[in-house]
Amino acid sequence: MEITGDILYRWVCDLFPVNRSLSGSGNLETLNYLSQIVPELQILEFKSGTRVFDWTIPDEWNINDAFIELENGERIARFSENNLHVVGYSHSIDEIVSKSELESHLHYLADMPNAIPYVTSYYNKTWGFCMTKWQYEALGDGPFRVYIDSTFRSASQGGRLHYGEIYIPGTTTQEILFSTYICHPSMANNELSGPVLATALANYLSSKDNHYSYRILFLPETIGAIAYLSQNLDTLKQNVIAGWVLTCLGDSGDFSHVASRNGNNYADFVTRMVLEKLGCSYKSYSWLNRGSDERQFCAPGIDLPVCSVTRSKYGTYPEYHTSLDNLTVVNADSLFESFLFLNSIISELESNRVPKVTVKCEPHLSSRGLYSNLSSLDTFTKKSEDILNIISYCDGSNIYESIARKCQISIDEVEEIIFILQNHGLIEE
User: Fold this and answer.
1) Using one digit for the tens of pLDDT, what is the confidence trace for 153-165?
2) CB-based burial of residue 1 (10 Å sphere; 0-12 exposed, 13-18 middle, 19+ buried)?
3) What is the pTM of this model?
4) Which candidate, 319, 365, 380, 396, has a CA 20 to 30 Å from the CA of 306?
5) Cα–Cα distance, 181 to 291 (Å, whole number)
6) How confident is residue 1, by pLDDT bands cut at 50, 70 and 90?
7) Alpha-carbon torsion 107, 295, 198, 314, what sign?
């Protein structure tokens, strides 16, 4: 399939009405839709109640309907009109309440009177409604009927947290990881731009021969990443050489790079290099500005070489986490530009090589004719210095261009020396 901006935008429009959360039928519906585009997508699951590191996967949540009924019978904050009207993971209720009791369960934005806020309560059972400030001011004195028809399912009742995984094998088992999330209801940029672009990348990668293997994950944010890492960390640590979290890539803002915890892994380097090569205006954010699943992939003890890329970063554009993050915030041109940017990252990865030294400590160069058998000030030449410097950066995390920059020599010189070292069995790629 040839990917175009119009196709990407159509996928966003198709998935926009679906109510997603940490779990539930909306997540499964979203994954089923994406699997029609990329049949390689496997729909997998974790059981509710499973302990994953310091967390426990919550019960599966589904909702059928919800509303607030006024004294005159009018129904407002209807789930059927906008699924952000209900606090995520609200329990069922059908009661008559006073205005003061209702107000303790209401959420609105005083400074954005026409926006419905996005609010959840995954790990504390409660109920609640979200509405615009205008709706709140028109409520009247009550009493009010509050109605939420929702269900929770434990593991014994079939409760599951679903996620998607695509694995595209290359000529090597070394992996590139892309991760995105499928837990937000009707928000276009913050939610759907990531899964749609990840699907487009999978479609593109499946149609070509690749040096690297590619793993693409569709996870409920935070708990999904933690659950996945709890079961797959050893494989990821062994194989992943670079990874990216994809989110907020559909608006017209400049590209943004949210760095890893150390800020200098292979994914960080490639991201900056591609943005500079493309001549893009972009914003750099440190680890202190994190907020997506890079928090889990780069956590102490996990330490995978992952960073995040966005356009307008989550939390920095006014529509974020509100009903105003709708189909007008994203557009076909920006989605396609983001697709091309991610393709450029893949092209850079596939065209670059990552050398790795095969011995521990400095190799014995003189026995291979690469260093004088006599040791004196005169025998330590610029060439000897370059060889040792290059070897010191051949740790499996630097491409040729990175090594050239760090050693302050040309890429041609790096290639020449690495070729010599490969012939002596000192470097592998």
Assistant:
1) 999 999 999 999 9
2) exposed
3) 0.88
4) 319
5) 12
6) confident
7) positive
